[in-house]
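Handout, section 3.2

Students often ask what a structure token actually looks like in practice. Rather than define it abstractly, here is a full record for DoxX family protein. The first block is the sequence as you would receive it.
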Amino acid sequence: MKSILHKVIQPFTCDSWYLNLFIKVPQIVMGIILAFHFGKYSFGVPWSPERLNLTFFEVAPWFLDVVSNFYNPIGNFPYAFALFSGLTKIVGGIALILGVFSRIASFCVIILMSIFLINQEFIDFNFTFPLFFIAVSCFSLYFGSGKFGIDYLIAKKFFSTSSNR
């Protein structure tokens, strides 16, 4: 179990700060877009617009209507997928910004955006957003959070950081 946790948490690191910054900046940009732009309209968070009248962690009714039109099996379970979508956008976006469990958050974003790509005809934005998120998530899935994330601090404290991936 410790070996699996080590592989998930241990980020790719290098000595030069600008390469670690190159790893972290796309994650921060994607996290900000997911959590503070897209997430606030479909999921109730403190920064959601007041006109939506969403309580904390409430799924927006309009988003449930959109998801219920998705292809099966997603369309059969709209609330479960909408909850997964909201949590991935908000919690995953913030996790990517902070660099905590970045690989898990990236994997969830890849799943979410793949489903959005398949069901693109039911969503009112074009396919470039899901492709951007998938590309950055693949990048983040490989590299992890880099040195500028909480994953690095966890790995440094609990695991040996002498070997890089």
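Discussion prompt for tutorial groups: The radius of gyration is 17 Å. How would you have guessed this from the sequence alone?
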